[in-house]
C-alpha cells in the first residue's frame, strides 16, 4: 500500500484506533478537530496551513450538498465541473492545477478523466460505492481513493426495512388512498404480513449485516448469497442468487457494484423470485436488468419492488409510476441530515489528511 | 348450506354484522360442527326487533364491528360469551359484560405483530419521508425538479416513547431497539421485569422523547390523552405515530401543531371521526396517513377468524377460552 510522506510511527499509531469506528465522533470531524483534541501534534507554523487554500479540487458530481460545498470552498479552491460550460476546455486549461477530485454515486473519476489530470493525487468520494471510480487506474498511478463507509450503514439498512414494510403493507398506497378521499367509499384492501417473511440478502457486508439484524427483530428468517460463505454466521447460505431467490420472500441487493455483479438480478432470478416475491434494491441501478424488471412487474410475474436506485438516475421507467406494488425513491439511502454531514466531514477530513501528509481516514486505495 | 335436524340442535352464535374475515375470505373457513350462526344482518328487521324475536336462547356472540351494550344484552339473557375479531374492545360495554358474568374472548396476539410492524413502518416513513419522496418520483419530479429535499432524520439514537406497553407496545419496542433507538414508556402502571424507563405521565414521557408511539386502548382515561401540553412537551422536532385509536389524541390540537410547525410530523392510522380525515393534513408532506388498516393483512384476518371459532368451540365444550380478556 502506497503511503504519502508520513508522520513518525508514534503519531501514525495514535490515529490507528480511530480509523475504523462507526460512531467515533472523531471520525466525523476534520483533522483540525483531531488536532484540537490533542491527538495530533499542533501545527508548527501557519505557513503549513495557507497553501491548502490554493489547492485546486474538482467536484465532478453536481454540487447538491450545500454543507459539503461550503466546507470544501472554505479550505480549498473548489471547481464545480457541473457548472462549467465547456468541460474539455476547462479540463485542459486546469490540467496542471487539479490535485483532488470529489465525486459521489452519480459521478466520480473514470479512466478518461484521470488521464486528463496528470497532477491528480486523491479521489475522495461522497459515497461508499466506488463503481464510478476507475480503481485499477488509480492504483496504477498511485492516486489515493477514499470513500464514506460505516457512517451511512444505518441509514441504508433502515431504508431497506422501510421499503420492505412500504411494499408489503402498502404504506404509500394507503396514504394515497386517504388523500384521494377513497376511504369514504370503503376500506382499503388487505395487505401482506411482513413479520416472519424470509429475507434473502445479496452481499453480507456492513450494510447486508445491518439489514439482517433489523429483519431478525421481525422474526424474519435470514438467508444470503455472497462470493463465499461467511464463517461464524448463522444465516442460511445459498451458493447462487437464483437459489436464494427461489427460497426467499423478499430479496435485497446489498452488495457492491462491480463488473461481476452487474445485472446480478436478471430474468432468471426474477422468475425464481416469482409472483409473490418482492425485490428491494438499495445497491446500484445496474445491479438489476431494469428492462426485465419493468416487464416482470407490469406483467405481474414479480410480486413487488422497492427501489432506491436506477439504471439512469434521475430517470425512472414511467411504466412503474402507476403500479401500487412498487415504491420508488430518489436515491435517498444515506439521505439524513446527520449522515450527509458525517459523510461530508469524511470527504473533507480525508482531503485535509492527505494534503497535510497524515494517514487517510478511510482509504480504499 | 342445507340445514338438517342435527343442525337445528346446534347452539347458535349471533352475528350482528358480517365479520370482515367472513366477507373477505369466505365464510367456509369459519364454520364449525359445534355451532351455527344466527345472522342478524341478513334480516330486514332492525337489530333490537330481531333480537327480541330470536335472541332468547342465544348463548354466544361473535362480535366484530358492532356495539354490544346494555340494550343489546337485555335482549340476550342467555349469552355467556362474546368472541370478538376486533383488535380493540371499545365497542363492547365491558362493565356491563362483567356485571352479567359474560366472558370475552379477544383477538389475543393475532394482531399485535401486524400493528407493531405497521407502527414501525409509519415511523420510518415519517422520518425518512418514504411516502413523500415516492410521490415525488411518481409525479416525474426527480427528473424535472432535481433531488428530493428536505433530507430525512436518522433513526439510531432516537428516543422512542411508547404509550401503552401492552403486547403491541412491547413488540414495537423490540423492533425499534434493532434500529438503535432507545425506549421509554408510559402505561397505567410500570411493568415488572421490563427494563425500559417508566414515566408516570405521558407529558413527562413526551418531554424526553423524539417520537411518541401510541399503542394503548381507548378508554375514558385515555381519551385525548395526547393533548396540548403533551404535544408542546414533544416539541418542534418531535414525531407522533398513532396505531391505537383516534380518540387518544386531541385531533384538532394536533392538526394545529402540524400546521404551525410545532411538531415535526405524524404517522396516523386512526382518526377521531373515521373515515373523515382533517383536510388540512392532506396538504402536508410530513404526515403519513392510512385508513385504519394496521391490522388488515390476509394472514391476520384468517387467523383471528379461526381463533374466534376455536374460542367458541371451547366455550360450547365447557373448556377454558383460548384468549380470554382479563382486564387488569
Automatic annotation (TrEMBL), chain A:
GO term, biological process aspect, one: photorespiration
GO cellular component: cytosol
Signal peptide positions (record): none
GO terms for MF: glyoxylate reductase (NADPH) activity; hydroxypyruvate reductase [NAD(P)H] activity; NAD binding
Superkingdom of source: Eukaryota
Keyword line: NAD, NADP, Oxidoreductase
Coiled-coil residues: none
Family of the protein in this entry: Belongs to the D-isomer specific 2-hydroxyacid dehydrogenase family.
Protein name as catalogued: glyoxylate reductase (NADP(+))
UniProtKB/TrEMBL annotation, chain B:
Sorted UniProt keywords: NAD, NADP, Oxidoreductase
The keyword Oxidoreductase is annotated on this UniProt entry: yes
GO MF annotation list: glyoxylate reductase (NADPH) activity; hydroxypyruvate reductase [NAD(P)H] activity; NAD binding
InterPro entries assigned to the protein according to its UniProt record, in alphabetical order: D-isomer_2-hydroxyacid_DH, D-isomer_2_OHA_DH_cat_dom, D-isomer_DH_NAD-bd, NAD(P)-bd_dom_sf
Residues of the D-isomer specific 2-hydroxyacid dehydrogenase catalytic domain: 58-323
GO biological process, one term: photorespiration
Keyword Ribosomal protein (UniProt): no
Annotated coiled-coil segments of the chain: none
D-isomer specific 2-hydroxyacid dehydrogenase NAD-binding domain span: 120-294
GO cellular component assignments: cytosol
Family according to the record: Belongs to the D-isomer specific 2-hydroxyacid dehydrogenase family.
Name the record gives this protein: glyoxylate reductase (NADP(+))
Organism in which the protein naturally occurs: Linum trigynum
Amino acid at each position: 500500500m502506497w503511503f504519502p510522506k508520513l508522520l513518525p510511527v508514534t503519531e501514525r499509531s495514535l490515529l490507528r484506533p480511530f480509523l475504523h469506528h462507526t460512531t467515533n465522533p472523531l471520525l466525523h470531524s476534520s483533522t483540525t478537530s483531531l488536532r484540537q483534541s490533542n491527538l495530533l501534534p499542533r501545527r508548527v507554523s501557519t505557513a503549513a496551513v495557507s497553501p491548502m487554500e490554493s489547492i485546486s479540487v474538482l467536484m465532478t458530481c453536481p454540487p447538491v450538498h450545500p454543507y459539503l460545498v461550503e466546507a470544501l470552498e472554505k479550505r480549498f479552491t473548489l471547481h464545480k465541473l457541473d457548472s462549467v460550460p465547456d468541460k474539455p476546455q476547462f479540463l485542459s486549461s486546469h490540467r496542471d492545477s487539479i490535485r483532488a477530485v470529489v465525486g459521489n454515486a452519480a459521478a466520480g473519476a473514470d479512466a478518461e478523466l484521470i488521464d486528463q489530470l496528470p497532477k491528480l493525487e486523491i479521489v475522495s468520494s461522497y459515497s461508499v460505492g466506488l463503481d464510478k471510480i476507475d480503481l485499477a487506474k488509480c492504483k496504477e498511478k498511485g492516486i489515493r481513493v477514499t470513500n464514506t463507509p460505516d457512517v451511512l450503514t444505518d441509514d441504508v439498512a433502515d431504508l431497506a426495512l422501510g421499503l420492505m414494510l412500504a411494499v408489503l403493507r402498502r404504506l404509500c398506497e394507503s396514504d394515497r388512498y386517504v388523500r384521494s378521499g377513497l376511504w369514504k367509499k370503503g376500506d382499503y384492501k388487505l395487505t401482506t404480513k411482513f413479520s416472519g417473511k424470509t429475507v434473502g440478502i445479496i452481499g453480507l457486508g456492513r450494510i447486508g449485516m445491518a439489514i439482517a439484524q433489523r429483519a431478525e427483530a421481525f422474526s424474519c428468517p435470514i438467508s444470503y448469497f455472497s462470493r463465499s460463505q461467511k464463517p461464524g454466521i448463522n444465516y442460511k447460505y445459498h451458493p447462487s442468487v437464483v437459489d436464494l431467490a427461489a427460497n426467499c420472500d423478499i430479496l435485497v441487493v446489498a452488495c457492491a457494484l462491480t463488473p461481476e455483479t452487474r445485472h446480478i438480478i436478471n430474468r432468471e432470478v426474477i422468475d425464481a423470485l416469482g409472483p409473490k416475491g418482492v425485490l428491494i434494491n438499495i445497491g446500484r441501478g445496474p445491479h438489476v436488468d431494469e428492462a426485465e424488471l419493468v416487464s416482470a412487474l407490469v406483467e405481474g410475474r414479480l410480486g413487488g419492488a422497492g427501489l432506491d436506485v436506477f439504471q439512469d438516475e434521475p430517470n425512472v421507467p414511467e411504466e412503474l409510476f402507476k403500479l401500487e406494488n412498487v415504491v420508488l425513491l430518489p436515491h435517498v439511502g444515506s439521505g439524513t441530515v446527520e449522515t450527509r454531514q458525517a459523510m461530508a466531514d469524511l470527504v473533507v477530513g480525508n482531503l485535509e489528511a492527505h494534503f497535510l501528509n497524515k494517514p487517510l481516514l478511510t482509504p480504499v486505495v | 348450506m342445507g340445514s338438517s335436524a342435527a343442525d337445528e340442535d346446534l347452539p347458535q352464535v349471533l352475528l350482528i354484522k358480517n365479520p370482515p374475515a367472513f366477507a373477505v375470505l369466505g365464510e367456509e373457513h369459519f364454520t364449525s360442527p359445534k355451532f351455527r350462526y344466527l345472522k342478524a344482518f341478513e334480516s330486514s328487521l332492525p337489530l333490537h326487533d330481531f333480537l327480541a324475536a330470536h335472541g332468547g336462547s342465544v348463548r354466544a356472540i361473535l362480535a366484530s364491528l358492532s356495539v354490544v351494550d346494555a340494550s343489546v344484552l337485555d335482549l340476550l339473557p342467555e349469552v355467556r360469551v362474546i368472541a370478538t375479531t376486533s383488535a380493540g374492545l371499545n365497542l363492547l360495554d365491558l362493565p356491563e359484560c362483567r356485571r352479567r358474568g359474560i366472558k370475552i374472548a379477544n383477538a389475543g396476539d393475532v394482531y399485535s405483530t401486524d400493528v407493531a410492524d405497521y407502527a414501525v413502518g409509519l415511523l420510518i416513513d415519517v422520518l425518512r419521508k418514504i411516502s413523500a419522496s415516492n410521490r415525488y418520483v411518481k409525479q416525474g419530479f426527480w427528473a424535472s425538479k432535481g433531488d428530493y429535499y428536505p433530507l430525512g432524520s436518522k433513526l439510531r439514537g432516537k428516543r422512542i416513547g411508547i404509550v401503552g406497553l401492552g403486547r403491541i407496545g412491547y413488540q414495537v419496542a423490540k423492533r425499534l431497539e434493532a434500529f438503535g433507538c432507545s425506549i421509554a414508556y408510559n402505561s397505567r402502571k410500570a411493568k415488572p421485569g421490563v427494563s425500559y424507563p417508566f414515566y408516570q405521565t405521558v407529558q413527562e414521557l413526551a418531554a424526553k422523547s423524539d417520537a411518541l408511539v401510541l399503542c394503548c386502548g381507548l378508554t375514558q382515561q385515555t381519551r385525548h390523552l395526547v393533548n396540548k401540553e403533551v404535544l408542546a412537551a414533544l416539541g418542534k422536532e418531535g414525531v407522533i405515530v398513532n396505531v391505537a385509536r383516534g380518540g387518544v389524541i386531541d385531533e384538532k390540537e394536533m392538526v394545529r401543531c402540524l400546521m404551525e410547525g410545532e411538531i415535526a410530523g405524524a404517522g396516523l392510522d386512526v382518526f377521531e371521526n373515521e373515515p373523515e380525515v382533517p383536510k388540512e393534513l392532506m396538504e402536508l408532506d410530513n404526515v403519513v396517513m392510512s385508513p385504519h388498516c394496521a391490522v388488515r393483512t390476509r394472514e391476520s384476518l384468517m387467523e383471528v377468524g379461526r381463533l374466534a371459532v376455536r374460542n367458541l368451540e371451547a366455550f360450547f365444550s365447557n373448556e377454558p377460552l383460548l384468549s380470554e380478556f382479563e382486564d387488569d
